[in-house]
């Protein structure tokens, strides 16, 4: 298989401006670059180019946390207030019970999509965590999985408090410098010293108007930009004991929460990592999205294989899926399941009808002439940032609907949770959106 040719073909098919594919297997690194860093400038992507890794940063933050566990400084089962006495949420009882383990597993239950910019100073993270005092509790700690960016910012604040230095400095001192990650940047000021990718939005993809999300979300994924080789070097360090002891790594990768496939994530969640079970093999990984950039990491310890894809726009998910399918079939005889598509099943959507919302999105499910619709409206900080979207939904699997038409190359699943004899309590799209009572609409 000629990966370089396949990368170019698939990038053209999925309208991805630029990408780097990195593979570690059989004791060797292989990297392939194609496209441009910025369609406005036409600068070519090279294998040493830096792309933002977005939420892939969460596995780096998890690694920093597990170093503290290994040192006996951090106990995952003690309340967050053990380390941050002033930690507050709208639900004080929940805030008192949430542990670091809840944060790592996305089961803390409070509103996690808070993207407030608290500045570029060393106090950005502390100020951000202080703002969470008004964040509502969506469900009780440990009850459900719901992807939580804010939770990882709290975790980052614990890390910098225990180290008595800013989170970004912890990255440099504990990982970037010891592992000699010379093609890694923690902000735009550093990234500009390298060949750095610019995110692209829209169809056809155009350069995004901003480069990065606020520094206040650094532990969740707003800071790091890396080359494919540096990402692979980090993953290799986990397997060789350069960062954590083997027993600590096994603990980090132990499943803590089984997931429904309809959540759009893996089969389970460990301490900071997604877990996938495919063809009897276990794969660990994480994806990341920022402003027009998407990153994907998959690691198969039993085969000593790691695969990373860094992209800057277009239909990144199907590009990754097709490339990973080729790589894993060739190197490990693993066949990935296909991406979800509409099926011919039927369902009674009555339990799903209604309005669900979090701090950024409101989704109303309706039925008109036997057609099911979802109307999505930005709210809160994002109110007015985009017009409402109206999407046709079709039956999928039990308690799930799926978009009739793909967006960014994929069909999106809407999963519903709650009493099977009554209306759904939550609409789950990776985040659990609670049903809004009619009296509050």
Automatic annotation (TrEMBL):
Give residue ranges for domain Beta-lactamase-related.
Answer: 4-319
Q: One of this protein's Pfam families, by short name?
A: Beta-lactamase
| InterPro entries for the chain | AmpC-like, Beta-lactam-related, Beta-lactam/transpept-like
Q: Where are the transmembrane segments?
A: none
- Coiled-coil intervals: none
What PANTHER family does the record point to? BETA-LACTAMASE-RELATED DOMAIN-CONTAINING PROTEIN (PTHR46825:SF9), D-ALANYL-D-ALANINE-CARBOXYPEPTIDASE/ENDOPEPTIDASE AMPH (PTHR46825)
Q: What name is this protein filed under?
A: CubicO group peptidase, beta-lactamase class C family
């Amino acid at each position: 298989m000629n990966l370089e040719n396949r990368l170019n073909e698939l990038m053209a098919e999925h309208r991805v401006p630029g990408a780097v594919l990195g593979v570690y297997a059989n004791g060797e690194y292989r990297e392939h670059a194609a496209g441009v860093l910025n369609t406005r400038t036409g600068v070519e992507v090279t294998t040493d180019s830096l792309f933002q890794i977005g939420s892939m940063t969460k596995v780096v933050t998890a690694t920093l946390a597990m170093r503290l566990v290994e040192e006996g400084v951090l106990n995952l089962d003690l309340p967050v207030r053990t380390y941050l006495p002033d930690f507050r949420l709208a639900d004080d009882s929940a805030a008192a019970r949430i542990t670091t383990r809840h944060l790592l597993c996305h089961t803390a239950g409070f509103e996690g999509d808070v993207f407030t910019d608290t500045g570029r100073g060393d106090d950005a993270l502390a100020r951000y965590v202080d703002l969470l005092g008004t964040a509502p509790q969506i469900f009780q700690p440990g009850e459900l999985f719901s992807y939580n960016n804010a939770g990882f910012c709290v975790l980052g604040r614990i890390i910098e408090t225990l180290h008595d230095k800013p989170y970004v400095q912890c990255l440099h001192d504990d990982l970037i410098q010891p592992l000699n990650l010379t093609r890694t940047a923690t902000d735009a000021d550093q990234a500009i010293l390298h060949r750095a990718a610019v995110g692209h939005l829209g169809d056809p993809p155009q350069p995004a108007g901003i480069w990065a999300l606020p520094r206040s979300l650094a532990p969740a994924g707003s800071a790091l930009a890396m080359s494919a080789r540096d990402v692979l070097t980090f993953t290799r360090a986990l397997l060789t004991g350069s960062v954590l002891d083997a027993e600590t790594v096994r603990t980090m990768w132990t499943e803590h929460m089984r997931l429904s496939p309809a959540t759009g994530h893996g089969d389970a969640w460990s301490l900071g990592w997604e877990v996938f079970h495919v063809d009897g093999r276990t794969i660990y990984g994480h994806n990341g999205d920022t402003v027009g950039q998407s990153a994907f990491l998959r690691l198969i310890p039993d085969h000593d294989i790691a695969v990373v894809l860094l992209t800057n726009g277009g239909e990144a998910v199907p590009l990754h899926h097709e490339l990973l399918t080729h790589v894993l079939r060739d190197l490990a005889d693993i066949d990935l399941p296909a991406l979800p598509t509409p099926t011919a099943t039927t369902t009674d959507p009555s339990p799903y009808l209604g309005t669900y919302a979090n701090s950024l999105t409101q989704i109303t499910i309706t039925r008109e002439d036997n057609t099911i619709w979802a109307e999505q409206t930005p709210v809160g900080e994002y109110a007015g940032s985009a017009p409402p979207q109206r999407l046709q939904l079709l039956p999928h699997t039990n308690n799930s609907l799926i978009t009739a038409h793909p967006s960014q190359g994929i069909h999106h699943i809407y999963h519903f949770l709650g009493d099977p004899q009554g209306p759904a309590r939550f609409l789950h799209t990776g985040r659990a959106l609670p049903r809004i009572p009619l009296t509050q609409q």
